[in-house]
Amino acid sequence: MTFKKYIQDETILKTLEALGYELMLPVQNQVIPVLKQKKDCIIQSKTGSGKTLSFVLPLIDSFEVDKKSVQAIVLAPTRELALQIKEEFDRMGRLKKIKALCITGKQSYEDQVMDLKQRAHVCIGTPGRILDHIENGNLNCDSVKYWILDEADEMLNKDFIEDILKIRSYLPNDICTSVFSATYPLKIKELIENLLNNPVFIQIEQEKNKIEEIFYSVLEDEKNIKLCQCLSNELPESCIVFCRTQNRCEEVYEFLKSNQVNCQRLHAGLLQEKRFKIMKDFKEGKIRILISTDVCSRGIDIQKVDCIINYDMPDTSYSYVHRIGRSARVNESGKAFTFISELDCEKALKLQEDLSFQVEYRKLEGKVDLSSLSKRVRYNTKKDTLLTKNITKIYINAGKSKKIRAKDILGALCQIEGMEFEDIGIIQIQNHQSYVDILNGKGNLVIQSLKTIKNKKIKVEIAKE
Q1: Is the CB of residue 12 less than 8 Å from the CB of residue 96?
Q2: Which of 120, 213, 393, 396 could share a disulfide with 434, CB 3.0–4.6 Å?
Q3: 292 and 411 part of one domain
Q4: Which H or E run contains 100?
Q5: Which contiguous run of DSSP H or E holds residue 234?
Q6: Rounded to an integer, what distance in angstroms lies between the CA atom of residue 145 and that of residue 38?
Q7: What distance in Å separates the CA atoms of residue 19 and residue 385, rounded to the nearest whole number?
Q8: Statement to judge: residues 414 and 325 lie in one domain
């Protein structure tokens, strides 16, 4: 089924075509029409099945572009996932001039307040920071039509539930609420019933698992050498090694780094900007082996992860499902290796019980040769390369401090010969600088021609990534 059946906006259809999206995946075929009817829904579909696009498209299609206030709020359990969802809204809504904000902790609160004062159609963020802005009057919820909880089983656990319920109290009574996840523990299902109004339940039939799951019996103090054997046997171009704690991540990272392996680590103890940079580099293939806590196990979409290694067994079967789901995304296959030590007997039994399969232990053997893992071998292309071919994001060295407003920039751009209103995309104004998407291949024209705004001399150049 093609997207044209449910999506009418020509800018969205043009974007889908540029990105090479032709046919809807099963989850999109079922979810999009339900959200377009503004019905509450519960969606259960395996990791990597296309859930994000199934809510991004109908939301963008529903947005009133000229309306200044926020029309949708999307909540995610981690900052990395929130940023990834924001990037999907940017990608799919760019030609429609949809502005999405990523509102998470450990980022400049003042910059977020400034962004919220400008036009924004959707806010994607973590519950604590979103609630903070609502309670302080920075985020007005009166026009919010859609509320999405991604990775809902994680969102409704004890760490988030209080904030989630507070946020709900500020939202309109007739809001359309949707929850998405690959897994729903029983206690979470009970909470969902209190949040949703007569929801439609959508469960996508699980296809045959494309992940080969292998379990190795190892001794706890042999894990490093077994990790080396596993990596030497597989020689993955892209691999995530999951550890239980931040300290363990650091230890494994230092061990592999000392063996000249091209690797990085990711956990909540790192500065947020560094976390974003590491995730970006891993997605682009600059990093070959990523050692991570469960901060990377939820919803993160990375092209062609060859294998997952559970260096430490996950605490629950749900965590196991989400971890190995980072490999074998849409139309791909992969492998998942799990180390089971003498400390993991109870967890292994629980895993078998919950997932209804028998763990068959193997011995991990082989020569250790990590020399070829020192190099980068994969260059992942960005999803939106074709889409952004004719779009240039420009930087202007003037912003609110010089009393520059969006309409001032718009007016200056429209005075340039050869520029039309349709050539101007999203305008973002900060304290000391502004950013503008220039569409239809007219970026160089603007850079050469735009010299002043409101009779103030300005500097214009291509924005750094």
Answers
A1: yes
A2: 396
A3: no
A4: strand 100-103
A5: helix 223-234
A6: 8
A7: 8
A8: no
Which residue is associated with the tokens 């209080």? 162
What CATH number is given to the structural domain containing 38? 3.40.50.300
| Same domain flag for 186 and 137 | yes
Residue ranges in 118-175 assigned as alpha helix (H): 127-135, 152-155, 161-170
Among 349, 374, 399, residue at a domain's last position: 374
Strand pairing partners for 74?
124, 148
Q: Is 155 found in the same domain as 34?
A: yes
- Do the domain assignments include residue 7? yes
Q: Based on the domain organization, do 163 and 224 belong to the same domain?
A: no
Q: Is residue 192 part of a domain?
A: yes
Buried b (16+ CB within 10 A) or exposed e, 320-348: bbbbbbbbbbeeeebbbbbbbbeebeebb
| Residues found in the chain | 465
pLDDT digits (tens, 9 = 90+) for 103-161: 999 899 999 999 999 999 999 999 999 999 999 999 999 999 999 999 988 888 878 99
Q: In terms of residue numbers, what domain contains 74?
A: 3-203
> Which residue's structure tokens are 């050469």?
448
CB atoms closer than 10 angstroms to residue 128: 14
Q: Specify which residues 265 forms β-bridges with.
A: 291
* Residue 189 confidence (pLDDT): 77
